[in-house]
Amino acid sequence: MPALRIENLKKSYGTVPVLKGINLAVENGDVVAVIGRSGSGKSTMLRCINGLEPFQEGSIVVAGHRLDQSRANLRDLRKEVGMVFQSYNLFPHLSVAENIMLAPRVVKGLPRDQRELLVRDVLSRVGLAEKASAYPDELSGGQQQRVAIARSLAMKPKVMLFDEVTSALDPELTGEVLKTIAELAEAGMTMVLVTHEMGFARRVATRTVFMHEGKIWEEGPSAQIFAHPATPELRSFIATDLK
Amino acid sequence: MAYEMNFTPVFARTPELISGTIDTIVLSGQSIVIGLTIGLAVSILRVDGPKWAAAASAGYVEAFRNTPLLVQLFLLFFGLPYIGIRLSADHAAILAISLNLGAYSAEIFRAGLLAIPKTQIEAGLALGLSRLQVMRYVVIIPALRVIYPALTGQLTLTLLGTSIASAISATELTLAGAKIESQTFRSLETFLVLAAIYISITFAFRLLYWIVGLWLFRRSVPKTGSAVATLSLPREAET
Question: What is the spatial distance between Cα A205 and Cα A225, in angstroms, rounded to a whole number?
Answer without folding.
Answer: 11
